[in-house]
Design brief:
The protein is mainly α. Helices cover 71% and strands 0% of the residues. The chain has one domain.
Length: 123
């Protein structure tokens, strides 16, 4: 169960990091871009967690979820108004550990990130 939860957080954040080339410094162009990078970093924290220690892994997932939600709330205020409902759905899904729903809610946010957030040295 813990592995599935962790995988959900990782999938949720890694898809966002895919828009940036995975670099925390790769986002430019909008106040939302650094926040999107922070979401990706949160997922990477879970990806590096030791799944062989269930207690530590659960603690990492809980901390990552709290951080993801905090960053998501900041992101909500940084994206265009048309994306705010998507960010709200993404936050609610992550809070409830419904990561597949979070992925679905994030589709327009991903498109925004690809369009607005530029990787260092190009698009």
């Amino acid at each position: 169960m813990l592995r599935a939860v962790g995988a959900g957080v990782v999938v949720l954040a890694f898809t966002l990091s895919g828009c940036s080339g995975g670099s925390a410094d790769a986002f430019h162009g909008s106040k939302a871009c650094p926040l999107l990078s922070q979401l990706a970093d949160t997922g990477e924290t879970v990806a590096r967690a030791d799944v062989s220690d269930p207690v530590a892994f659960d603690h990492t997932v809980r901390d990552a979820t709290v951080e993801y939600v905090r960053t998501g709330r900041e992101l909500r205020d940084a994206v265009p108004s048309a994306l705010r409902a998507d960010v709200d759905r993404m936050i609610a899904a992550v809070q409830q550990r419904r990561y597949a729903d979070g992925n679905a809610a994030r589709a327009h946010v991903d498109a925004y990130a690809r369009a607005v957030c530029k990787a260092n040295g190009g698009a």
